[in-house]
Amino acid sequence: MKLLVTGGAGYVGGVCASVLLERGHEVVVIDDLSTGNRDAVPAGATFVEGDVARLAGEVLDPTFDGVMHFAARSLVGESVARPGEYWQGNVTSSLAMLDAMRAAGVDNLVFSSTAATYGEPEQVPITEDMPARPTNTYGATKLAIDHAISSYAVAHGVAATSLRYFNVAGAYGSAGENREVETHLIPLVLQVALGHRDHIKVFGDDWPTPDGTCVRDYIHVADLADAHVLALESNRPGVHRILNLGSGEGFSVREVIDVCREVTGHPIPDVVAPRRPGDPAVLVASSEKAMRELGWRPSRPDLRTVVRDAWAFTSALGDRAHSAPR
Ligand code: UFG
Fold this sequence. Notes:
39% of the residues lie in helices and 17% in strands. The chain is α/β, with parallel strands linked by helices. The strands form four sheets. It has a seven-stranded parallel sheet, sandwiched between helices. A two-stranded parallel sheet has the order 7-10. The radius of gyration is 19 Å and the shape is globular. The protein starts with a strand and ends in a 9-residue tail after the last helix. Bound molecules: uridine-5'-diphosphate-4-deoxy-4-fluoro-alpha-D-galactose. Uridine-5'-diphosphate-4-deoxy-4-fluoro-alpha-D-galactose (UFG) binds at residues 74, 76, 114-116, 138, 167, 183-185, 188, 200-203, 214, 216, 253, 276, 279, 283.
């Protein structure tokens, strides 16, 4: 298949583009490099630098078989502080993409959605029929796009899947997390192990969880990429599926730090800090629908494998790490 991957210079988009190429597909990446790295675009992909809203109509033509749409702003805290950038950036570019697909007669779409669409869950594990009440602008923009895709599926026959990721981590080959602004737990903990930070802050130890720290569901980025390919291959015209993707098991912040200590052999000092606004106490996915609909089975569900792969990537970065002392 010939596929357009927007945001293919980002972490998840870059890994998915690599997996598509390995499986013999042709890949064209659009990315404006506002948060992505040129190095993350896999060799073998055609790279077009620029804004999706502007370029989608120019790049897409009837020779394409489908689109994986990752390009988006994705920092929860930033989305609350600067909502305009998120509504403009995420929603406008997605609508432009949907219209470009229509104009070109390309009707197969996989969209990168998020667990942040659910907000504070009433119960876990979270299933797709639970209320979507996002507590931040990032989640609200992704939910709005999910609604738009549903309308386009009904009106124009688009075949689509929105994949709602929980906490994506790990690395695949030479692709991993190396953001200029890092806020995610595992890469930050590994930066401590590398000596690029003194300690990791634990955002609250008084949550209503067994050890008082927040519980999350960590999914290996390679398992996530497999689900994208399966979704693309099984999309049906006029149907918009919404599927959660997680490992189904929750780990507390303290448990994650302990696994990182074990894998890296580094003491990784931690300091308890105030709760981070907007954090739900527990987020764990039910991925049963994805398993049923896609025939997907995570092949790397163990947190140790996730951390081991992330560490292999981070420790090999050296001075190319954005966190490296300059
Ligand atoms: N945490 C710390 N210290 C840190 C960083 C994080 O204690 O320095 C904690 C957070 O408070 C949270 C957990 O580690 O409890 C995981 O935090 P991340 O920032 O790694 O991930 P989030 O759970 O906040 O966010 C993830 C995705 C988002 C998505 C969200 C869904 O990265 O894109 O899940 O709620 F929106």
